[in-house]
């Protein structure tokens, strides 16, 4: 009896959870006082109580406040954890993607610290570069925490928004943060998010900046990768916009595209796309342009072989615009297995007796040596 009353009392107290305003103020004071870990546990346990009774909006307010105040104090791991929990609630509560929630996500994103990792050792670094090593480690933590948060947000926007690939704006934010904050920038990841974004001008600015500080041979590869990624998605407009915008930005700083065979390939490839863009309508490639496309691939194969992903992207482009379907790798494998199996079995076949009335004494009279073509 007493246990039943206790359970009913507990359920009633959960339903009667007060507005989170005072709780948020108290927890923010804890963080301001330097009690980061204790406050972190309180943020998680308090928000969990609201989630248990389906008060998702209140839980979102608590987690957003916690993420912002922890990040303000440089507690990237704590802030990043609460930021991911914020997105988890958006998914659990099945909140549809909207500008309101995008603005809240952007506010958390903008709170992540941005500290440039030095590219050289100065007076502040000892002979062993300990401080530089610490700076690089901290940068990795920032990049991983922010990336985890934005990737979760992209998954939510893909599930509860209108874009299959997730919010283009979120992709641009992630690309920018990876490029500017990661100590070991993965240009393939950066480009893949920019291409799924909606800002080719910003992508062009990033590539121009990259050209000024990358190693020789990395600049043309990064440019080609961006163009081919756009084309592989059927996005002729942004592929051309990217190159046009880069041309303008390079001209403004008295520079130009790298003079390499790979860039020459891209320059020749874009006109063959016959990309007539009018009122956001993109006309597909003409079928009779495929021989030129194929010739370009053959002529510049040495250049496009520099990056393993290029051939795959070019296959996608051929499928998108010329309806040249990629061969299923299994089909090629099974065909080769059948051919080899048949060749190996020919000696046995040739020694067999032919069926009665066939006109042959044995199969050897019509067998062809292992040079048979399948």
UniProtKB/TrEMBL annotation:
InterPro entries: GET4, TPR-like_helical_dom_sf
Protein name in the entry: Golgi to ER traffic protein 4
Annotated segments matching region Disordered: 1-23
An individual GO BP term: protein insertion into ER membrane
Stretches with biased composition (Low complexity): 1-10
Annotated family: Belongs to the GET4 family.
Signal peptide: none
């Amino acid at each position: 009896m007493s246990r039943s009353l206790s359970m009913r009392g507990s359920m009633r107290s959960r339903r009667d959870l007060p507005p989170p305003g005072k709780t948020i103020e108290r927890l923010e004071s804890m963080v301001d006082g330097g009690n980061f870990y204790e406050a972190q546990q309180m943020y998680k346990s308090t928000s969990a109580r609201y989630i248990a009774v389906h008060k998702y909006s209140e839980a979102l307010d608590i987690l957003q406040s916690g993420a912002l105040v922890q990040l303000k104090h440089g507690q990237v791991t704590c802030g990043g954890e609460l930021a991911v929990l914020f997105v988890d609630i958006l998914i659990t509560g099945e909140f549809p993607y909207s500008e309101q929630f995008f603005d809240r996500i952007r506010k958390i994103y903008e709170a992540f610290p941005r500290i440039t990792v030095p590219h050289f050792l100065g007076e502040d670094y000892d002979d062993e570069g300990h401080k530089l090593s610490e700076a690089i480690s901290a940068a990795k933590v920032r990049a991983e925490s922010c990336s985890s948060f934005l990737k979760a947000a992209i998954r939510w926007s893909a599930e509860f928004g209108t874009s299959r690939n997730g919010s283009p704006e979120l992709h641009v934010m992630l690309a920018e943060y990876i490029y500017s904050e990661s100590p070991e920038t993965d240009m393939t990841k950066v480009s893949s998010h920019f291409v799924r974004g909606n800002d080719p001008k910003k992508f062009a600015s990033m590539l121009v900046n990259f050209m000024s500080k990358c190693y020789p041979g990395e600049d043309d590869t990064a440019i080609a990768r961006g163009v081919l990624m756009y084309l592989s998605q059927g996005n002729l407009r942004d592929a051309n916009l990217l190159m046009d915008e880069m041309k303008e930005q390079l001209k403004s700083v008295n520079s130009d595209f790298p003079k390499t065979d790979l860039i020459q390939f891209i320059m020749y490839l874009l006109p063959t796309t016959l990309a007539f863009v009018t009122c956001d309508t993109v006309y597909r490639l003409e079928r009779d342009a495929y021989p030129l496309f194929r010739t370009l691939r053959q002529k510049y194969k040495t250049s496009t072989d520099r990056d393993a992903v290029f051939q795959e992207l070019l296959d996608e482009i051929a499928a998108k615009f010329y309806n040249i379907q990629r061969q299923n790798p299994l089909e090629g494998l099974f065909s080769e297995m059948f051919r080899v199996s048949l060749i190996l079995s020919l000696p046995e076949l040739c020694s067999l007796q032919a069926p009665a009335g066939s006109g042959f004494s044995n199969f050897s009279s019509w067998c062809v040596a292992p040079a048979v073509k399948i």
